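<context>
A single protein, sequence plus fold
<sample>
Here is the protein in question:
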Amino acid sequence: MLRWCPKIVAVRIALVWLALSMVVGASEAANPAAVVPDNPMCPVMLGSAVDPEFWLDYNGKRIWFCCDNCRARFIANPDFFMPNVEDEAYQTAGTTGSGEPAGFVGSLIGLAGRWHPVAVHFPIALALAALLAEIMTIMTGARTFLPVSRFLLWTAVAGALLAAPFGWAAAHGAGYSEVVQQTVFRHRWLGTGGGAILLIALLAREVAEKPKDRKFAWGLYRLSLFVGAVAIALAGYFGGVLVYGPDHFRF
């Protein structure tokens, strides 16, 4: 006949309880509760949702980022990126889609905006190369570089006609902070204006091929090419400021 011993039963119950506690604790450690970031949108890579894996504590506030590279950029220049953390309009717009058209139109604008980083590099490089070819023509007096500069200008204008609307689509409804809005304004209008000036340079270049008014057309072409290329290059600089911060050229 088995004897019931309260002490043995109590010990067994305690051991079972301890084992269950260890199992539950291990399960919670393996599957931690989902972290809800205070800033759902990355303050560095604008328009990108944060990854709870990447964060840091700054001035008593925990800040999340989309990747480790953005965290490093924030550490290098926190004063520039901090307004994006504190800007409720930007953080809310990124998560709720505020300001974005719904449905197919919104998806189309978002898709066009994602092509801006692909297209934007072409007009910058090609416009500067066209300007360099024209400078070589002026310095050497040789006509060897004329078809080169003409071809480069055509492709630069074509690239600008793609990059500009893609850029406007990328910035549409983004809800940037006030500090970033100033940089976006410069980037947007230098790029758009520079593209328009390059188009004037292209038209003047084509008119210069005709017998009449060649002198005026050549002058307008070269002036417009210089101004347009500089404007496009400055637009590229401010684009770099948006991504890397204002000190991205610092060694």
Remarks:
- The longest helix spans residues 214-244.
- The first strand starts at residue 51 and ends at 58.
- Residues 1-98 form one domain.
